[in-house]
Design goal:
11% of the residues lie in helices and 30% in strands. By secondary structure, the chain is mostly beta strands. The chain is globular and about 45 Å long.
Length: 66
């Protein structure tokens, strides 16, 4: 099992890019941390999730003051 955003998921052995795509994330507006290290967007297709990984996916939200 892999912990993703605090939820246990059956994602061991899955490519990070495949997981993010299947989960519906917009790859342009996110940052991913795996085991307390930021994963470069260029490496999403090279990183495979492993048993015990802790992953946080953060989405950026636009906004601001006028």
């Amino acid at each position: 099992m892999v912990q993703i955003n605090g939820k246990m998921e059956k994602a061991s052995g899955v490519c990070l890019l495949d997981y993010l795509t299947q989960a519906g994330y917009n790859l342009v507006g996110i940052a991913v941390e795996r085991n307390e290290e930021i994963v470069s967007k260029a490496d999403y297709d090279k990183v495979f999730l492993e048993e015990g990984d802790v992953v946080e996916v953060v989405s950026f939200v636009g906004g601001g003051s006028r």
